[in-house]
Amino acid sequence: MARSAILNVMVQAAMKAGRSLSRDFGEVQNLQVSLKGPGDYVSQADRKAEDILFAELSKGRAGYGFLMEERGAVAGEDDQHRWIVDPLDGTTNFLHGIPVFSISIALERQGQIVAAVVYNPAMDELYTAERGGGAFLNDRRLRVSGRTKLVDAVIGCGVPHLGRGHHGNFLLELRNVMGEVAGIRRLGSAALDLAYVAAGRMDGFWETGLSPWDVAAGILLVREAGGFVSDDKGGQDMLDGGSIVAGNETIHRALIKTLKRPVTPR
Ligand code: 2AM
Ligand code: CA
Ligand code: CA
Ligand code: CA
């Protein structure tokens, strides 16, 4: 598979940051950790990986702007292009020694996501996509699952975070979904959840309360693997609205309907 020059820049940056995360994951008990809010941790590993990504992406393409979890927005001279980056998606897993975390890099051009990399260094799984060029896991072309019935489906979700609301609504959604599906999973890295939907490992995924860097790359992975992505109302406000529903066409539609259904006591 021939990668474009820009995707190569993104892959090289992700691999370098991935080596840093892998080293820190091996000595996780020695990392300095601080609290950004209730239950919201950031470590030296997040910051080191972000520094590497900022340096490598800046070197690869001068002047592009950034939106990064720890740095926030950094304006560039080129206002047509912006990197949307999460240096460590799944910090809670990482700090607990659970090898389910990822680096997420999306390139936005004139408001459209055109290239995406999600990399899980612990499993050495590299997910890439370019707009119109398909999605890949390492060198293998990806396709969302072909399952069409919720009763056969494994659905990923996120659990609302401490102090951020949505808890009551989540319980209603969960109750609706768990009564219909084969299984529910909670990985703890939204970027990987979306990559797993793209890979057909999970048939669908929903979460609320997310930030643009959690989902920007994963959205393109799912679309380029033939899947559907929307916010929880069926619109396209995923980056700023914070809610996301993904799946193949049939599961995506069924999941939106099931999430919204008024709960009937059972
Ligand atoms: P993070 O690990 O980069 O913070 C899991 O539910 C998803 O929510 C992950 O993408 C995770 O990203 C994000 N997340 C974890 N803790 C969070 C918090 N306190 N507030 C908002 N998002 C959070
Ligand atoms: Ca975080
Ligand atoms: Ca994140
Ligand atoms: Ca993060």
How does this structure look, described?
This is Inositol-1-monophosphatase. With 266 residues, this protein is α+β, with helices and mostly antiparallel strands. The chain is built from eight helices and 15 strands. An eight-stranded mixed beta sheet has the order 4-3-5-6-7-8-9-10, sandwiched between helices. The chain has a five-stranded mixed beta sheet with strand order 12-11-13-15-14, with helices on both faces. Helix 1 runs antiparallel to helix 2 and helix 4 packs across helix 8. The longest helix is centred in the first third of the chain and has 22 residues. It is globular. The relative contact order is 0.13. The mean pLDDT is 96. The site of one calcium ion (CA) has 6 residues, from strand 5.
How do you describe this structure in short?
InterPro entries: IMPase, Inositol_monoP_metal-BS, Inositol_monophosphatase-like, Inositol_monophosphatase_CS, Inositol_monophosphatase_SuhB. The chain is of the alpha+beta class.
Summary tags:
binds calcium ion, hydrolase, binds adenosine-2'-monophosphate, 266 residues, five-stranded mixed β-sheet, Inositol-1-monophosphatase
| Total helical segments | 8
Q: What does the radius of gyration come to?
A: 18 Å
Beta-strand share of residues: 25-35%
User: Major sheet: order of its strands?
Assistant: 4-3-5-6-7-8-9-10
pLDDT averaged over residues: 96
Distance from first to last alpha carbon: 51 Å
Say how many strands there are.
15
How would you sum up the global shape? globular
Strand count, sense and barrel status of the largest sheet are: 8 strands, mixed
Unreliable stretches (pLDDT < 50, length at least 5) are: none
Enzyme class: hydrolase
Protein name: Inositol-1-monophosphatase
Keywords: Hydrolase, Magnesium, Metal-binding
Family: Belongs to the inositol monophosphatase superfamily.
